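Handoff note, outgoing to incoming analyst
You'll be picking up this chain. Sequence as last confirmed:
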Amino acid sequence: MVEEFLEKLPEIDTRYEDIVPMEQVSSMVSNGGGSVTMQRDDEYRNRIMKIRRLADEEISDKASTCGKLLIFLSVALVIMTLPFSLFVCFKVVQEYERAVIFRLGRLMQGGAKGPGIFFILPCIDSYARVDLRTRTYDVPPQEVLTKDSVTVSVDAVVYYRVSNATVSIANVENAHHSTRLLAQTTLRNTMGTRHLHEILSERMTISGTMQVQLDEATDAWGIKVERVEIKDVRLPVQLQRAMAAEAEAAREARAKVIAAEGEQKASRALREASEVIGDSPAALQLRYLQTLNTISAEKNSTIVFPLPIDLITYFLKTSEATTQQNAAAAAAAQQQMQMQQQQMQMQQQQFQQQQAQLPLQIQQQPQQLQLQQPLALTPQQQQPPTVPQQQQQYQQTQQISSAM
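Most recent structure output, in case you need it:
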Protein backbone atom coordinates (compact mmCIF):
# COMPACT_ATOMS: atom_id res chain seq x y z
CA MET A 1 0.00 0.00 0.00
CA VAL A 2 2.82 2.35 0.84
CA GLU A 3 4.52 1.62 -2.46
CA GLU A 4 1.32 2.42 -4.36
CA PHE A 5 0.98 5.71 -2.46
CA LEU A 6 4.58 6.67 -3.24
CA GLU A 7 3.96 6.03 -6.91
CA LYS A 8 0.85 8.25 -6.85
CA LEU A 9 2.40 10.95 -4.61
CA PRO A 10 3.75 13.16 -7.44
CA GLU A 11 0.35 13.10 -9.11
CA ILE A 12 -1.32 14.12 -5.84
CA ASP A 13 1.07 17.03 -5.39
CA THR A 14 0.43 18.33 -8.89
CA ARG A 15 -3.33 17.97 -8.48
CA TYR A 16 -3.18 19.83 -5.17
CA GLU A 17 -1.24 22.65 -6.75
CA ASP A 18 -3.77 22.79 -9.59
CA ILE A 19 -6.68 22.94 -7.15
CA VAL A 20 -5.17 25.53 -4.76
CA PRO A 21 -2.28 27.46 -6.33
CA MET A 22 0.33 28.92 -3.97
CA GLU A 23 -0.39 32.48 -5.17
CA GLN A 24 -4.05 32.08 -4.21
CA VAL A 25 -3.11 30.73 -0.83
CA SER A 26 -0.77 33.68 -0.17
CA SER A 27 -3.45 36.16 -1.28
CA MET A 28 -5.97 34.52 1.01
CA VAL A 29 -3.60 34.83 3.90
CA SER A 30 -2.80 38.48 3.12
CA ASN A 31 -6.52 39.38 2.78
CA GLY A 32 -7.36 37.73 6.09
CA GLY A 33 -9.92 35.32 4.61
CA GLY A 34 -10.09 31.61 3.88
CA SER A 35 -8.96 30.43 7.31
CA VAL A 36 -10.97 27.23 6.97
CA THR A 37 -9.33 26.44 3.64
CA MET A 38 -5.89 27.08 5.10
CA GLN A 39 -6.59 24.72 7.99
CA ARG A 40 -7.60 22.02 5.54
CA ASP A 41 -4.46 22.62 3.53
CA ASP A 42 -2.29 22.31 6.65
CA GLU A 43 -3.98 19.04 7.57
CA TYR A 44 -3.45 17.75 4.07
CA ARG A 45 0.23 18.71 4.19
CA ASN A 46 0.72 17.07 7.59
CA ARG A 47 -0.82 13.84 6.34
CA ILE A 48 1.49 13.83 3.33
CA MET A 49 4.53 14.39 5.58
CA LYS A 50 3.51 11.53 7.85
CA ILE A 51 3.11 9.22 4.88
CA ARG A 52 6.52 10.23 3.58
CA ARG A 53 8.08 9.53 6.97
CA LEU A 54 6.53 6.09 6.98
CA ALA A 55 7.87 5.50 3.49
CA ASP A 56 11.37 6.61 4.53
CA GLU A 57 11.28 4.35 7.57
CA GLU A 58 10.23 1.37 5.43
CA ILE A 59 13.02 2.11 2.95
CA SER A 60 15.52 2.49 5.80
CA ASP A 61 14.40 -0.83 7.24
CA LYS A 62 15.03 -2.51 3.91
CA ALA A 63 18.39 -0.74 3.59
CA SER A 64 19.34 -1.67 7.14
CA THR A 65 18.60 -5.29 6.40
CA CYS A 66 20.79 -5.21 3.31
CA GLY A 67 23.42 -3.24 5.19
CA LYS A 68 23.53 -5.76 7.99
CA LEU A 69 24.12 -8.47 5.44
CA LEU A 70 26.99 -6.54 3.83
CA ILE A 71 28.50 -5.76 7.22
CA PHE A 72 28.41 -9.45 8.12
CA LEU A 73 30.15 -10.36 4.87
CA SER A 74 32.80 -7.65 5.43
CA VAL A 75 33.53 -8.85 8.95
CA ALA A 76 33.78 -12.41 7.69
CA LEU A 77 36.24 -11.26 5.03
CA VAL A 78 38.36 -9.51 7.64
CA ILE A 79 38.44 -12.60 9.81
CA MET A 80 39.33 -14.83 6.89
CA THR A 81 42.22 -12.60 5.79
CA LEU A 82 43.78 -12.05 9.20
CA PRO A 83 46.40 -10.73 9.90
CA PHE A 84 46.76 -9.06 6.51
CA SER A 85 43.39 -7.32 6.83
CA LEU A 86 44.62 -5.38 9.86
CA PHE A 87 46.76 -3.19 7.61
CA VAL A 88 43.58 -2.11 5.83
CA CYS A 89 41.18 -1.91 8.76
CA PHE A 90 43.20 0.17 11.27
CA LYS A 91 43.81 3.84 10.53
CA VAL A 92 45.52 6.60 12.52
CA VAL A 93 44.80 10.35 12.53
CA GLN A 94 46.94 13.07 14.09
CA GLU A 95 46.08 15.25 17.07
CA TYR A 96 44.98 18.12 14.82
CA GLU A 97 42.91 15.86 12.52
CA ARG A 98 39.52 14.17 12.65
CA ALA A 99 38.13 11.32 10.53
CA VAL A 100 34.54 11.41 9.28
CA ILE A 101 33.47 7.82 8.49
CA PHE A 102 30.75 6.88 6.02
CA ARG A 103 29.35 3.33 6.13
CA LEU A 104 27.36 2.42 3.08
CA GLY A 105 27.05 6.14 2.31
CA ARG A 106 25.75 7.14 5.73
CA LEU A 107 27.51 8.91 8.55
CA MET A 108 28.59 6.75 11.43
CA GLN A 109 26.99 7.46 14.77
CA GLY A 110 29.18 9.19 17.31
CA GLY A 111 30.54 11.86 15.02
CA ALA A 112 34.09 12.22 13.80
CA LYS A 113 36.78 9.82 15.04
CA GLY A 114 40.15 10.75 16.42
CA PRO A 115 42.71 11.64 17.31
CA GLY A 116 44.47 8.30 17.43
CA ILE A 117 43.57 4.90 15.98
CA PHE A 118 40.17 3.85 14.64
CA PHE A 119 38.74 0.80 12.85
CA ILE A 120 36.99 0.61 9.46
CA LEU A 121 35.54 -2.26 7.52
CA PRO A 122 36.89 -2.77 4.02
CA CYS A 123 34.67 -2.32 0.98
CA ILE A 124 31.77 -0.74 2.91
CA ASP A 125 33.46 2.08 4.91
CA SER A 126 35.05 5.25 3.59
CA TYR A 127 36.45 8.17 5.58
CA ALA A 128 37.61 11.72 5.05
CA ARG A 129 40.35 13.47 6.99
CA VAL A 130 39.58 16.96 8.22
CA ASP A 131 42.33 19.33 9.38
CA LEU A 132 41.28 21.39 12.43
CA ARG A 133 44.21 23.79 12.37
CA THR A 134 43.68 27.48 11.72
CA ARG A 135 44.10 28.42 8.09
CA THR A 136 45.06 31.75 6.63
CA TYR A 137 43.50 33.14 3.50
CA ASP A 138 44.96 36.20 1.87
CA VAL A 139 42.06 37.92 0.15
CA PRO A 140 43.29 39.31 -3.19
CA PRO A 141 42.96 43.06 -3.77
CA GLN A 142 39.39 44.03 -4.52
CA GLU A 143 38.48 47.12 -6.52
CA VAL A 144 35.71 48.70 -4.46
CA LEU A 145 33.59 51.78 -5.07
CA THR A 146 32.99 53.45 -1.72
CA LYS A 147 29.83 55.20 -0.63
CA ASP A 148 31.27 58.60 -1.59
CA SER A 149 32.17 57.35 -5.12
CA VAL A 150 35.90 56.81 -4.63
CA THR A 151 37.58 53.78 -6.18
CA VAL A 152 39.96 52.04 -3.79
CA SER A 153 41.80 48.73 -3.80
CA VAL A 154 41.41 46.80 -0.54
CA ASP A 155 42.90 43.48 0.51
CA ALA A 156 42.48 41.57 3.76
CA VAL A 157 43.53 38.47 5.67
CA VAL A 158 41.03 35.93 7.06
CA TYR A 159 41.90 33.40 9.78
CA TYR A 160 39.46 30.49 10.07
CA ARG A 161 39.34 26.86 11.18
CA VAL A 162 37.01 23.87 11.04
CA SER A 163 34.96 23.72 14.25
CA ASN A 164 32.72 20.76 13.31
CA ALA A 165 34.33 18.19 11.03
CA THR A 166 31.12 16.26 10.35
CA VAL A 167 29.14 19.33 9.29
CA SER A 168 31.99 20.65 7.12
CA ILE A 169 31.99 17.38 5.15
CA ALA A 170 28.27 16.65 5.03
CA ASN A 171 26.73 20.12 4.54
CA VAL A 172 29.01 21.72 1.94
CA GLU A 173 31.01 20.36 -0.97
CA ASN A 174 34.19 22.35 -0.26
CA ALA A 175 34.05 24.35 2.95
CA HIS A 176 37.40 26.10 2.41
CA HIS A 177 36.63 27.26 -1.11
CA SER A 178 33.18 28.45 -0.09
CA THR A 179 34.60 30.39 2.87
CA ARG A 180 37.15 32.12 0.66
CA LEU A 181 34.59 33.18 -1.91
CA LEU A 182 32.33 34.45 0.84
CA ALA A 183 35.22 36.45 2.34
CA GLN A 184 35.79 38.22 -0.99
CA THR A 185 32.13 39.13 -1.45
CA THR A 186 31.78 40.22 2.19
CA LEU A 187 34.81 42.47 1.84
CA ARG A 188 33.38 44.14 -1.27
CA ASN A 189 29.92 44.57 0.28
CA THR A 190 31.25 45.97 3.54
CA MET A 191 33.58 48.48 1.87
CA GLY A 192 30.85 49.59 -0.52
CA THR A 193 28.71 50.82 2.37
CA ARG A 194 31.46 52.97 3.95
CA HIS A 195 32.90 56.38 3.22
CA LEU A 196 36.58 56.77 2.43
CA HIS A 197 37.46 58.45 5.71
CA GLU A 198 35.71 55.64 7.61
CA ILE A 199 37.71 53.00 5.71
CA LEU A 200 40.96 54.78 6.55
CA SER A 201 40.21 55.54 10.20
CA GLU A 202 37.91 52.71 11.35
CA ARG A 203 39.71 49.58 10.21
CA MET A 204 39.20 47.76 13.50
CA THR A 205 35.45 48.36 13.41
CA ILE A 206 35.19 47.19 9.81
CA SER A 207 37.26 44.09 10.59
CA GLY A 208 34.98 43.21 13.52
CA THR A 209 31.88 43.66 11.36
CA MET A 210 33.30 41.41 8.65
CA GLN A 211 34.24 38.76 11.22
CA VAL A 212 30.69 38.67 12.64
CA GLN A 213 29.12 38.42 9.18
CA LEU A 214 31.45 35.66 8.03
CA ASP A 215 31.08 33.71 11.27
CA GLU A 216 27.29 33.79 11.05
CA ALA A 217 27.30 32.71 7.41
CA THR A 218 29.85 29.88 7.81
CA ASP A 219 28.41 28.47 11.03
CA ALA A 220 26.19 26.14 8.97
CA TRP A 221 29.32 24.82 7.21
CA GLY A 222 31.17 23.98 10.42
CA ILE A 223 33.65 26.85 9.95
CA LYS A 224 34.69 29.24 12.70
CA VAL A 225 36.09 32.60 11.54
CA GLU A 226 38.55 33.67 14.22
CA ARG A 227 39.89 36.95 12.90
CA VAL A 228 39.66 39.32 9.94
CA GLU A 229 42.24 42.02 9.31
CA ILE A 230 42.24 44.68 6.61
CA LYS A 231 45.69 44.51 5.17
CA ASP A 232 46.06 47.52 2.90
CA VAL A 233 43.99 50.25 1.29
CA ARG A 234 45.42 51.61 -1.94
CA LEU A 235 44.21 54.96 -3.21
CA PRO A 236 44.60 56.46 -6.70
CA VAL A 237 47.72 58.57 -7.21
CA GLN A 238 45.78 61.79 -7.89
CA LEU A 239 43.74 61.31 -4.73
CA GLN A 240 46.91 60.68 -2.72
CA ARG A 241 48.39 63.96 -3.96
CA ALA A 242 45.22 65.88 -3.15
CA MET A 243 45.04 64.41 0.35
CA ALA A 244 48.73 65.11 0.93
CA ALA A 245 48.30 68.75 -0.12
CA GLU A 246 45.28 69.09 2.15
CA ALA A 247 47.13 67.58 5.11
CA GLU A 248 50.16 69.81 4.51
CA ALA A 249 48.01 72.94 4.41
CA ALA A 250 46.25 71.92 7.61
CA ARG A 251 49.59 71.31 9.36
CA GLU A 252 50.95 74.69 8.24
CA ALA A 253 47.84 76.43 9.53
CA ARG A 254 48.15 74.70 12.90
CA ALA A 255 51.87 75.56 13.05
CA LYS A 256 51.15 79.24 12.45
CA VAL A 257 48.48 79.29 15.12
CA ILE A 258 50.79 77.59 17.61
CA ALA A 259 53.64 80.00 16.82
CA ALA A 260 51.34 82.99 17.31
CA GLU A 261 50.13 81.64 20.64
CA GLY A 262 53.75 81.08 21.71
CA GLU A 263 54.70 84.65 20.85
CA GLN A 264 51.70 85.94 22.75
CA LYS A 265 52.60 83.96 25.87
CA ALA A 266 56.27 84.98 25.56
CA SER A 267 55.37 88.67 25.33
CA ARG A 268 53.21 88.38 28.44
CA ALA A 269 56.04 86.65 30.31
CA LEU A 270 58.51 89.33 29.20
CA ARG A 271 56.16 92.05 30.36
CA GLU A 272 55.87 90.43 33.78
CA ALA A 273 59.65 89.98 33.96
CA SER A 274 60.23 93.62 33.05
CA GLU A 275 57.84 94.70 35.80
CA VAL A 276 59.68 92.55 38.35
CA ILE A 277 63.10 93.86 37.24
CA GLY A 278 61.80 97.43 37.29
CA ASP A 279 60.66 97.03 40.89
CA SER A 280 64.07 95.66 41.94
CA PRO A 281 67.15 96.99 40.06
CA ALA A 282 69.32 94.33 41.69
CA ALA A 283 67.36 91.65 39.80
CA LEU A 284 68.87 92.86 36.55
CA GLN A 285 72.39 92.46 37.98
CA LEU A 286 71.54 88.92 39.16
CA ARG A 287 70.20 88.15 35.71
CA TYR A 288 73.48 89.31 34.19
CA LEU A 289 75.40 87.04 36.55
CA GLN A 290 73.20 84.07 35.63
CA THR A 291 73.77 84.73 31.95
CA LEU A 292 77.52 84.90 32.54
CA ASN A 293 77.40 81.60 34.47
CA THR A 294 75.50 79.94 31.63
CA ILE A 295 77.98 81.16 29.04
CA SER A 296 81.00 80.11 31.11
CA ALA A 297 79.59 76.58 31.59
CA GLU A 298 79.96 75.94 27.86
CA LYS A 299 83.37 75.43 26.32
CA ASN A 300 83.61 78.70 24.47
CA SER A 301 86.82 80.50 23.55
CA THR A 302 85.11 83.90 23.61
CA ILE A 303 82.96 85.17 26.48
CA VAL A 304 80.85 88.27 26.04
CA PHE A 305 80.58 90.00 29.42
CA PRO A 306 77.54 92.26 29.69
CA LEU A 307 78.48 95.57 31.33
CA PRO A 308 75.99 96.49 34.08
CA ILE A 309 74.19 99.74 33.61
CA ASP A 310 74.81 100.72 37.25
CA LEU A 311 78.50 101.24 36.50
CA ILE A 312 77.71 103.69 33.71
CA THR A 313 75.24 105.66 35.81
CA TYR A 314 77.98 107.80 37.44
CA PHE A 315 79.46 108.77 34.11
CA LEU A 316 76.03 109.53 32.75
CA LYS A 317 75.27 111.79 35.72
CA THR A 318 78.68 113.59 35.37
CA SER A 319 78.16 114.21 31.68
CA GLU A 320 74.66 115.49 32.35
CA ALA A 321 76.00 117.95 34.99
CA THR A 322 78.75 119.19 32.63
CA THR A 323 76.23 119.64 29.88
CA GLN A 324 73.99 121.65 32.15
CA GLN A 325 76.90 123.89 33.26
CA ASN A 326 77.93 124.52 29.66
CA ALA A 327 74.37 125.34 28.76
CA ALA A 328 74.10 127.78 31.70
CA ALA A 329 77.42 129.48 30.80
CA ALA A 330 76.34 129.80 27.18
CA ALA A 331 73.03 131.31 28.28
CA ALA A 332 74.84 133.79 30.55
CA ALA A 333 77.28 134.79 27.80
CA GLN A 334 74.41 135.25 25.41
CA GLN A 335 72.57 137.44 27.90
CA GLN A 336 75.74 139.51 28.45
CA MET A 337 76.15 139.98 24.73
CA GLN A 338 72.55 141.05 24.43
CA MET A 339 73.07 143.59 27.24
CA GLN A 340 76.21 144.96 25.56
CA GLN A 341 74.39 145.27 22.26
CA GLN A 342 71.56 147.11 23.99
CA GLN A 343 74.07 149.50 25.65
CA MET A 344 75.76 150.12 22.30
CA GLN A 345 72.43 150.86 20.67
CA MET A 346 71.53 153.27 23.45
CA GLN A 347 74.90 155.06 23.11
CA GLN A 348 74.41 155.33 19.34
CA GLN A 349 70.96 156.83 19.85
CA GLN A 350 72.35 159.36 22.39
CA PHE A 351 75.18 160.29 20.01
CA GLN A 352 72.75 160.78 17.13
CA GLN A 353 70.51 162.96 19.31
CA GLN A 354 73.46 165.08 20.35
CA GLN A 355 74.54 165.48 16.72
CA ALA A 356 71.01 166.52 15.82
CA GLN A 357 70.89 169.11 18.61
CA LEU A 358 74.35 170.70 17.90
CA PRO A 359 73.37 172.72 14.76
CA LEU A 360 70.36 174.23 16.53
CA GLN A 361 72.44 175.30 19.51
CA ILE A 362 75.04 176.79 17.18
CA GLN A 363 72.43 178.83 15.35
CA GLN A 364 70.71 180.03 18.56
CA GLN A 365 73.77 180.77 20.61
CA PRO A 366 76.74 181.30 18.34
CA GLN A 367 78.46 183.53 20.79
CA GLN A 368 78.27 181.12 23.64
CA LEU A 369 79.67 178.37 21.46
CA GLN A 370 82.64 180.49 20.57
CA LEU A 371 83.36 181.41 24.17
CA GLN A 372 82.88 177.97 25.67
CA GLN A 373 85.31 175.19 25.13
CA PRO A 374 84.25 172.16 23.22
CA LEU A 375 83.00 169.19 25.22
CA ALA A 376 85.49 166.49 25.93
CA LEU A 377 84.08 163.26 24.53
CA THR A 378 85.46 159.81 24.91
CA PRO A 379 86.76 158.06 21.90
CA GLN A 380 83.84 155.62 21.98
CA GLN A 381 81.38 158.55 22.10
CA GLN A 382 83.21 160.50 19.40
CA GLN A 383 83.16 157.61 16.98
CA PRO A 384 80.31 155.05 16.93
CA PRO A 385 81.33 151.38 16.73
CA THR A 386 81.88 150.20 13.25
CA VAL A 387 80.41 147.01 11.66
CA PRO A 388 83.71 145.01 11.84
CA GLN A 389 83.87 145.65 15.53
CA GLN A 390 80.34 144.32 15.98
CA GLN A 391 81.18 141.19 13.95
CA GLN A 392 84.31 140.59 16.05
CA GLN A 393 82.29 140.82 19.26
CA TYR A 394 79.68 138.32 17.89
CA GLN A 395 82.40 135.81 16.93
CA GLN A 396 83.89 136.03 20.43
CA THR A 397 80.52 135.22 22.01
CA GLN A 398 80.07 132.19 19.66
CA GLN A 399 83.51 130.84 20.57
CA ILE A 400 82.72 131.15 24.26
CA SER A 401 79.42 129.29 23.88
CA SER A 402 81.01 126.45 21.79
CA ALA A 403 83.84 126.07 24.33
CA MET A 404 81.35 125.76 27.15
